[in-house]
Amino acid sequence: MSGRFFAVVGPSGVGKDTLMEAAAARVPGLHLVRRVITRPASAGGEDFEGVSEAVFEARVAEGAFALHWQAHGLRYGVPAGVDAVLAEGRPVLCNLSRAVLPEAAEHFEGMRVLHITARPEVLAKRLANRGRESAADIVRRLERAGFPLPGGLDVCEIDNSGDLDAAMAQLLAALQPVRA
Ligand SMILES: Nc1ncnc2c1ncn2[C@@H]1O[C@H](COP(=O)(O)OP(=O)(O)O)[C@@H](O)[C@H]1O
Ligand SMILES: O=P(O)(O)OC[C@H]1O[C@H](OP(=O)(O)OP(=O)(O)O)[C@H](O)[C@@H]1O
């Protein structure tokens, strides 16, 4: 049986990458997607492949992505190799844009959305502490915080306003197979 694709979404600074890494350390076999991004490889944060616009465009043309989108002035791609990981029966976690969810649901059958949320003042503080973006970029990311989720999806809400362990418990529960 093929593994399940879990789309991790939510506003910038909410803790998506932190939770995904903690989950991978706890759940044997769980695969974290290494995204391709047109961001300098030195930017830090998640483990990703940093490429130029031209390289990204060439990858799109050769069908190297299962899914790709644009956000924050950057381009993001999910390598097509993720389909082989799912075919091995492994669960997959991937950080996606909320805007790309309808397309993702078409590609990944049985996809579950893990919607991570936190109070606005918590987001602002976390982004400032993370220090990866400029103040102007942080303002733009906070403006996007309330972006609504498209309807018709299988969504689990996970509140990460408080300590990480509380959100991890919710995340681990959401990864459990659905019982018939
Ligand atoms: N529950 C939490 N409590 C305190 N700090 C957190 C918590 N979750 C995440 N963080 C911190 O908030 C910042 C943003 O987290 P990150 O995982 O990069 O968010 P995202 O990937 O959603 O943008 C990071 O510095 C991270 O260490
Ligand atoms: O359409 P949205 O749901 O607002 O998402 C926009 C982008 O933000 C996140 O990227 P990234 O991981 O670079 O940013 P973040 O860590 O600050 O969330 C997410 O993976 C999308 O690529």
UniProtKB/TrEMBL annotation:
Q: Which organism is it from?
A: Salipiger bermudensis (strain DSM 26914 / JCM 13377 / KCTC 12554 / HTCC2601) (Pelagibaca bermudensis)
Q: Which GO BP terms sit in this record? A: 5-phosphoribose 1-diphosphate biosynthetic process; organic phosphonate metabolic process
Q: Which Gene3D superfamilies match?
A: P-loop containing nucleotide triphosphate hydrolases
EC code: 2.7.4.23
For this protein, the record's InterPro entries field holds: GK/Ca_channel_bsu, Guanylate_kin-like_dom, P-loop_NTPase, PhnN
Its protein name is Ribose 1,5-bisphosphate phosphokinase PhnN
Its UniProt entry gives the catalysed reaction(s) as:
alpha-D-ribose 1,5-bisphosphate + ATP = 5-phospho-alpha-D-ribose 1-diphosphate + ADP
Domain Guanylate kinase-like: start-end pairs: 3-176
An MF annotation (GO) of this entry: ribose 1,5-bisphosphate phosphokinase activity
Keywords from UniProt, A to Z, are: ATP-binding, Nucleotide-binding, Transferase
Annotated binding of ATP, by residue = 10-17
GO cellular-component terms in the record? cytosol
Query: Which pathway does it operate in?
Result: Metabolic intermediate biosynthesis; 5-phospho-alpha-D-ribose 1-diphosphate biosynthesis; 5-phospho-alpha-D-ribose 1-diphosphate from D-ribose 5-phosphate (route II): step 3/3
Q: What NCBIfam families does the record point to?
A: phosphon_PhnN (TIGR02322)
Entry's family note = Belongs to the ribose 1,5-bisphosphokinase family.
Q: What does this protein do, in the record's words?
A: Catalyzes the phosphorylation of ribose 1,5-bisphosphate to 5-phospho-D-ribosyl alpha-1-diphosphate (PRPP).
